[in-house]
Specification:
11 helices; binds zinc ion; alpha/beta; Quinone Oxidoreductase, Chain A, domain 1; six-stranded parallel beta sheet; Rossmann fold; 27% strand
């Protein structure tokens, strides 16, 4: 076979399933036959706005594939194993590469599967410079293909938790209970923190969050004042020049101006805010609250994929019911339109075409 079917981003609101050339393998590359690939919130951002992708990009970064071929310099794997991962090519020259902070190399995304490099919404995907344990992760046999395709977003939730280190006495607020928010709920439950509050506008996602272990869910559209509703749970948090709520840690998975400001209201003085959701435009925030509350704000970029696989294999998080729609690869155009129009839906999966 000299070509493969792939989902190509053409521009906002437009993806096309096309035949593209089969990738050629270098000595350090591997080829995976894709078994399942998720349509991520960031893929939908791209579809909506054109952000993060150039026209002709093959999309898809949350996947599970079966190893079908690999170059002579790749060790520690065999054909038939399942794996997930990403292509890497750090520049090796910049400030961050010099300081071994490779995930911050400004050239990383130029070389990342589904961003600069061809993604996994295709029959086959190539992983460049594959090193087991670094950018290639073998999928444990007990996981289904779809579960393994969720290790990347789960790893993002676990990275958000690693960045904020909540402890057993903490009250956590999770803003937005989509896939990542749901996984954060499950991750902080595992610690376990003292109390988990979720704010979410979708009734279906609220139910998923409660099933996942949230103690209290608040729908902002059903309360007269969201901050008051959170205060009624956490207590009122005083700070030097005003009042907010008393959350020890807040995760904003929605990434909107409003939710960033909500987060600054919910967090107690001396607490932490993690920004996980990607905004589509710049936000105006009340910076004085950050100062008066002495808040620590952290950005969350990336995923601890091996930890995601471990949590899945140990049964520490539940993924059942999170895949709400399945489409064959050739139906990708329909899949994107359906997921855009389905705010109640959680994760859409693209599966290989029936032969
Ligand atoms: Zn993603
Ligand atoms: Zn670099």
């Amino acid at each position: 076979m000299f070509w493969l079917k792939a989902v190509v981003f053409k521009g906002p609101g437009h993806v096309e399933v096309k035949h593209v050339d089969m990738p050629t393998l270098g000595p350090r590359d591997i080829l995976l036959k894709v078994k399942a690939v998720g349509i991520c919130g960031s893929d939908l951002h791209t579809y909506r706005t054109g952000l993060y992708a150039f026209p002709s990009q093959i999309m898809g970064h949350e996947f599970c594939g079966e190893i079908v071929n690999f170059g002579s310099e790749v060790g520690g794997i065999r054909v038939g194993q399942r794996a997930t991962g990403f292509s890497v090519a750090y520049c090796g020259q910049c400030f961050w590469c010099q300081h071994k902070q490779f995930r911050l190399c400004p050239h990383l995304f130029e070389n990342y599967t589904g961003y600069g490099r061809p993604g996994a919404m295709a029959e086959y995907v190539k992983i460049e410079n594959a090193v087991v344990g670094e950018n290639l992760f073998i999928v444990p046999p007990e996981l289904s293909d779809e579960e393994a395709a969720m290790a990347e977003p789960l790893g993002t939730a676990l990275y958000a938790i690693a960045r904020t280190k909540p402890t057993a006495g903490d009250v956590a607020v999770v803003i937005g209970a989509g896939m990542i928010g749901n996984f954060i709920v499950q991750g902080v439950k595992k610690i376990p923190v003292k109390q988990i509050i979720v704010t979410e506008v979708s009734a279906a996602k609220i139910q998923w969050a409660l099933d996942a272990g949230a103690d209290i869910a608040i729908n902002p559209r059903e309360v007269p004042d969201l901050l008051s509703a959170v205060q009624s749970v956490t207590g009122i948090g005083l700070h030097h020049f005003g009042t907010g709520a008393m959350a020890d840690v807040v995760y904003d998975t929605a990434g909107a101006e409003e939710t960033f400001n909500d987060a600054l209201g919910f967090v107690r003085a001396g607490g932490k805010v993690a920004l996980v959701g990607l905004p589509e435009s710049p936000s105006t925030v009340d910076v004085s609250q950050i100062i008066f509350k002495d808040v620590r704000i952290v950005g969350v970029l990336g995923s601890i994929i091996p930890r995601g696989l471990e949590y899945l294999a140990r049964g520490w998080v539940k993924t059942s019911n999170l895949v709400t729609a399945r489409f064959s690869l050739s139906e990708a155009d329909n899949a994107f339109r359906t997921m855009m129009d389905a705010p109640q839906g959680m994760r859409g999966m693209l599966l290989p075409d029936e032969n």
